[in-house]
């Protein structure tokens, strides 16, 4: 009996050692800059601002700021001081307490600050850095090549329009870095922040549709090497395509009379990490796949992505848990193709000249415009998850309740806040695209 008593601690120690080794996680050297996961503590959340005569974003911006302020510092960037003063007046009109909001003038600033703004990094020495990706207005050269069917003069003329402002927009991330005393890590890779999805441990999810469209002259090996260098990751998972209702640029014929516009496959529309070992994936059930062409396309695309994720491993060679999150019911708006639109008024209608020749529409056509509506364009910050709601537009309440339950389970201890942000969806973005987190500096 004595021998058995003496051996129990030894056996227990072996078991503990075995499981401890099994749970061993990758740790970054103190000097290595890397991108923390979004659920880690934030020092601030940034927003962009621009003239909003036609898009009607202001009420949603006001709600985002009011919701964030009790939990995290809010910072807003503006293209110029005049716009900053106008914004202060507008926010006060919306009932927003502007006390404590830090405001910056950064020439070239646009609304979608996550995409062109700073992708913040940290290291274990308490330092902050920014991954400075190149910017080409969401792969605009490739879209122009399609629109003008390779005609160099037309392409150059369209590219040079607003070029000065576009170049300034490409420098906003550097200006944010300077404002925060952060190191700037530049790369030739063209990429947007809405297409960066990391687990904070070394794994990055990318989408082939956007990455290769933006970087047609770079090899996969070069692209992977650069992402690893600037984001501090060691493992990359490649998705094939994003959602059908997030097509590349404005406007695109998605299928038949369904049209829309967007980024061409940003990850923050369809695939997100919930924690280092769990991935959320947008999903269309078998019973819904034939309701409309968009659902059918999303069903096929997400099934292909699901197979990829099932076979994927994390940075330590371990499989992921994959959770399917329903997409909202399809939302459409009947629109008319016009020869010209009012310059200073809101309309869902579209111009015939906005389409590429292979997807041409005719003046007078009636089409169905589709927003980039998804529960995945959410923001996780200190004590909060901000999620879009679609029940007011007729989407299933049962479906949205199922989404709530998933998020409550995956983000315990955080308040789940739903609010309507469809106006951003009509322009290819959402809550996540409208914000950019600045992580708290850490010290190992």
TrEMBL record:
This is Agmatine/peptidylarginine deiminase. The keyword Hydrolase applies. It comes from the Bacteria. Gene3D superfamilies: L-arginine/glycine Amidinotransferase, Chain A. The lineage of its organism: Bacteria, Pseudomonadati, Bacteroidota, Cytophagia, Cytophagales. It comes from Shivajiella indica. SUPFAM superfamilies: Pentein. InterPro entries: Peptidyl-Arg-deiminase_porph. Keywords: Hydrolase. PROSITE patterns: PROKAR_LIPOPROTEIN.
């Amino acid at each position: 009996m004595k021998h058995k008593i003496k051996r129990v601690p030894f056996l227990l120690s072996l078991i503990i050692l075995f499981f401890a080794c099994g749970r061993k996680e990758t740790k970054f050297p103190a000097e290595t800059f890397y991108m923390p996961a979004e659920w880690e503590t934030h020092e601030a959340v940034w927003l962009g601002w621009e003239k909003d005569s036609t898009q009607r974003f202001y009420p949603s911006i006001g709600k985002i700021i009011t919701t964030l302020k009790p939990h995290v510092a809010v910072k807003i960037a503006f293209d110029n001081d005049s716009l900053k003063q106008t914004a202060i007046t507008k926010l006060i009109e919306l009932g927003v307490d502007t006390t404590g909001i830090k405001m910056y003038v950064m020439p070239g600033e646009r609304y979608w600050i996550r995409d062109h703004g700073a992708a913040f990094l940290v290291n274990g020495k308490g330092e902050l850095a920014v991954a400075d990706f190149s910017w080409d207005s969401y792969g605009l050269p490739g879209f122009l090549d399609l629109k003008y069917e390779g005609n160099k003069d037309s392409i150059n003329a369209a590219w040079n329009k607003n070029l000065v402002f576009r170049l300034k927009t490409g420098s906003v991330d550097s200006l944010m870095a300077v404002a925060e005393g952060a190191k700037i890590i530049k790369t030739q890779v063209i990429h947007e922040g809405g297409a960066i999805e990391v687990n904070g441990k070394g794994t990055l999810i990318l989408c082939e549709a956007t990455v290769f469209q933006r970087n047609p002259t770079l090899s996969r090996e070069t692209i992977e090497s650069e992402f690893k260098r600037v984001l501090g990751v060691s493992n990359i998972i490649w998705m094939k395509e994003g959602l059908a209702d997030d097509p590349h640029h404005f406007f695109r014929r998605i299928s038949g009379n369904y049209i829309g516009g967007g980024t061409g496959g940003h990850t923050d529309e369809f695939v997100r990490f919930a924690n280092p070992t769990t991935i959320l994936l947008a999903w269309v059930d078998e019973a819904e796949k034939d309701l409309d062409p968009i659902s059918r396309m999303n069903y096929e695309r997400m099934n292909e992505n699901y197979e990829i994720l099932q076979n994927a491993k994390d940075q330590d060679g371990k499989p992921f848990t994959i959770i399917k999150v329903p997409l909202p019911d399809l939302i459409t708006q009947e629109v008319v193709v016009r020869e010209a639109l009012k310059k200073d008024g809101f309309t869902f209608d579209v111009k015939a000249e906005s389409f590429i020749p292979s997807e041409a529409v005719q003046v007078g056509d009636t089409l169905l415009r589709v927003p980039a509506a998804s529960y995945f364009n959410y923001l996780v910050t200190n004590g909060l998850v901000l999620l879009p709601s679609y029940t007011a537009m007729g989407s299933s309440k049962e479906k949205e309740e199922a989404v709530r339950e998933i998020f409550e389970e995956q983000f315990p201890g955080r308040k789940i806040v739903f609010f309507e942000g469809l106006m951003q969806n009509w322009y290819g973005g959402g809550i996540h695209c409208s914000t950019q987190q600045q992580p708290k500096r850490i010290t190992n």
